[in-house]
Amino acid sequence: MNIPSILFPSFRTRCDAPPLSPPPLPPLAAGGEMTATQSSNTPPPPPPPASSSSSSSGSAPASVAPPPSPREDDDSIARAASTVSSCSNPGPLEGATWDVRRLTSLDTYDGARIDVSKQLSPYFSVVHSFHLGTSMLPDSRNSSYGFTAQMNDEEGFMMARVDPERGTVDGRIHRSVLGGLAMAKLQVGTSAEGSNDQLLGELDFGANTWTANLKYGSMGGGNVVGCNYFQAVSPRLALGAEGMYIGANGNMLSSYTAKLSFPNTVYESGEGDAAPVPGGGPPSYLAATYNAGQGMLSVNYKRSVTPSRVNVGVSLECSPITLESQMMVGAEFNLTRSKMNVCVDGTGRVQSLLEAKLGREPGSPSLNFAAELDHGKSLMRFGYGLNIGS
């Protein structure tokens, strides 16, 4: 027995343990070089397929439809483009020359005109109108009062005006019908005598490139029947016609209209080429109307010198048979808080209107000044007006 080994046992440390085997070397390529770089670029393996238990429980991801092929996209774009026309809707035939009439037929007056409006609700408003110290009213009256009530909503509006002194009531109703495909209009006018009562119903309808209107009612003691049609034949040219039968005198009226539009243009600084102004307001146009019943030809031209700022209108009415003619030129200047209108006709009559806002907030009062000077009749008229309310 080895007594020292029993009393002092020997312990083996890690340094005394045999060394570990070295790690394996990376595999060699065909040329004898290591592929460590290639192995680092190798994509990770795909995820394992979902187990049957997960798919049976409904937790498997939903299948995503593949994106449409370029061929299908081209077909859908072609189908959408085939339904779009380069000709826009020309609007109603009655409004073909409305801009020129607004510039060349100013509503001048004398005396004082005051309008007080009140918005009672988002859909209902009333207006009190006073006209004092004027010589333009019939029956040698120098003052008048009128009450107007109007209701608006998403489907149209209703309006009624009452004149207590004359005993007249005028009303209008505009409503959208057939799911917005047409607009029905009703115009009513009654008086104390009953001789000037009228009732007229209209129906406006149209599509992408045309508008039409039907009329039927009673006016002047006889029936009235009429219709019109306005068609855009090109992006700039629109043609229309209107016919009306007046039963009170048995007249058959017809008129024909052609309207040619011009895009608004500006000249960029340093360049001589003109380019259309994007969003520059309504375009300029030239419109001609021939009334076959009266034998009158009317030519109207409207020019936007500065879009939404300066507009000029010219109206020429003549008779090809008698060669009688009348010309009117009007201009409108829109400033930041005011607007100025001037009109001159061939007889030497000059009309002007000035409207000035008294505040910047919506619904601020506005002050109006009107003047008319007729050199041929030695007539001068001056008036001012005040609009209060929204």
Automatic annotation (TrEMBL):
Q: Where in the cell is it found?
A: Mitochondrion outer membrane
**A GO CC term attached to the entry:** mitochondrial outer membrane
What is the official name of this protein in its record? Uncharacterized protein
Point to the regions of Low complexity compositional bias. 51-63
The UniProt keyword set, sorted, is: Membrane, Mitochondrion, Mitochondrion outer membrane, Protein transport, Transmembrane, Transmembrane beta strand, Transport
Its main subcellular localisation, reduced to a broad class, is mitochondrion
- Superkingdom of origin organism: Eukaryota
What CDD domains has UniProt attached to this entry? Porin3_Tom40 (cd07305)
Q: Which residues cross the membrane?
A: none
**Region Disordered: what ranges?**
1-96
Name the species this protein comes from: Cyclostephanos tholiformis
Gene Ontology terms: biological process? protein transport
Give the record's family classification. Belongs to the Tom40 family.
Q: How does it sit in the membrane?
A: Multi-pass membrane protein
